[in-house]
Structure formats: structure tokens, C-alpha cells
Design goal:
The protein is built from 2 helices and 13 strands, in the order E-E-E-E-E-E-H-E-E-E-E-E-E-H-E. It is of the alpha+beta class. The strands form 4 sheets. The protein has a 4-stranded antiparallel beta sheet with strand order 11-12-7-13, covered by helices on one side. Strands 1-6-5 form a 3-stranded antiparallel beta sheet, covered by helices on one side. The protein has a 3-stranded antiparallel beta sheet with strand order 2-3-4, covered by helices on one side. The longest helix has 22 residues. Belongs to the universal ribosomal protein uL6 family.
Length: 178
């Protein structure tokens, strides 16, 4: 039995979980998320808890068991607390500014780079080198942060670029002097 999959998920106050066949909808104070569960896995709501079960011990059923439980738990956390991901802009002349709901980066290119937030995601800028990506969908927050980082990844010689908050960039030695 999957160690993660067999754990029941407690439903906090103010959150409703509805199961309709293979569709699971989670509604909370921050919004609503839905998930379609893969075929052999079954989801039930019992006594204020969500229970995820599998019918057999096939390899595919075992692999989907823990995954499904984690995805439902992520949705419940998302509609109650939300998710955030921090980014830092490091480098001389590199900076970020808020332009309405979008953000504008100056990253050493010949032009500023404007990034619009995807649906359900919001950007906040602190100072001129910190960005916070926030939303209720964990996957969407992580993808939006990864797409921003992709604009100018941290390079290994000086460490300049966009990095996650707390990310350690492995540095390389430059040219050896005479």
C-alpha cells in the first residue's frame, strides 16, 4: 500500500470537496480548483476527510495512488493558503518594475522584457530586484516562475540572471591568469 496514498486528507473549515465520478472539485475562500482523477483510482468523501483508494496492486494503479492523493491535497492547500514562489534578479543594471498587473524586466537585452501574468496568477515586485509569483494552483505558480527564470538563467561565472529565492548558483573559475 502506498504510504502517502493511504493517508486520509482532512478537509479544513470553509472548504467543500465534491466528487462526481472521476471529477473532484475543491472550493474554498481563495477560489475553486478541479481535478480529473485517472481511471482505476477512486475518491470518496467520508466524515470530513477525503479518502483515496485503488482497486488492485497493478503497477499503474500503485503509481497513480499517491499522486492522486497529493494532487487533491495540493488543491485543498491552494484554496485555503495559496502558493508563492520568490524570484531574485541579480546583476549590475538588472532590475524589475511593476507595470499594472504585468512586470517589466531590464536584463541586459537591447529592449525591456514585459511579462503578463497567466490566468489565476499575480505578480508582486518588492524593491527593484525581487518578484513574488502567487496563486492557488501549485503547478501554474511553478510554471510561471520557471518561465520568468527562463528569460535569463543565472550564468555560472558571475551569477547574473534571474534565480529562485534561496537558489545557490554553482560558480565556475574564470580564465586562469598568467
Amino acid at each position: 500500500m502506498s504510504r502517502i496514498g493511504r493517508l486520509p486528507i482532512d478537509i479544513p473549515a470553509g472548504v467543500t470537496v465534491s466528487v462526481d465520478g472521476q471529477d473532484v472539485a475543491v472550493k474554498g475562500p481563495k477560489g475553486e480548483l478541479s481535478l480529473t482523477v485517472a481511471r482505476p483510482i477512486e475518491v470518496k468523501v467520508e466524515e470530513g476527510q477525503v479518502v483515496v483508494t485503488r482497486p488492485d496492486d497493478e503497477r499503474s494503479s500503485r503509481s497513480l495512488h499517491g499522486l492522486t492523493r497529493t494532487l487533491i491535497n495540493n488543491n485543498i492547500i491552494g484554496v485555503t493558503q495559496g502558493y508563492t514562489k520568490g524570484l531574485e534578479v541579480v546583476g549590475t543594471g538588472y532590475r524589475v518594475a511593476q507595470k499594472g498587473s504585468s512586470i517589466e524586466f531590464a536584463l541586459g537585452f537591447s529592449h525591456p522584457v514585459l511579462v503578463d501574468p497567466p490566468a489565476g496568477i499575480s505578480f508582486t515586485v518588492e524593491g527593484n530586484n525581487k518578484v513574488t509569483v502567487s496563486g492557488i494552483d501549485k503547478q501554474a505558480v511553478g510554471e510561471a516562475a520557471a518561465n520568468i527564470r527562463k528569460i535569463r538563467k543565472p550564468e555560472p561565472y558571475k551569477g547574473k540572471g534571474v534565480r529562485y529565492a534561496g537558489e545557490v548558483v554553482r560558480r565556475k573559475a574564470g580564465k586562469a591568469g598568467k
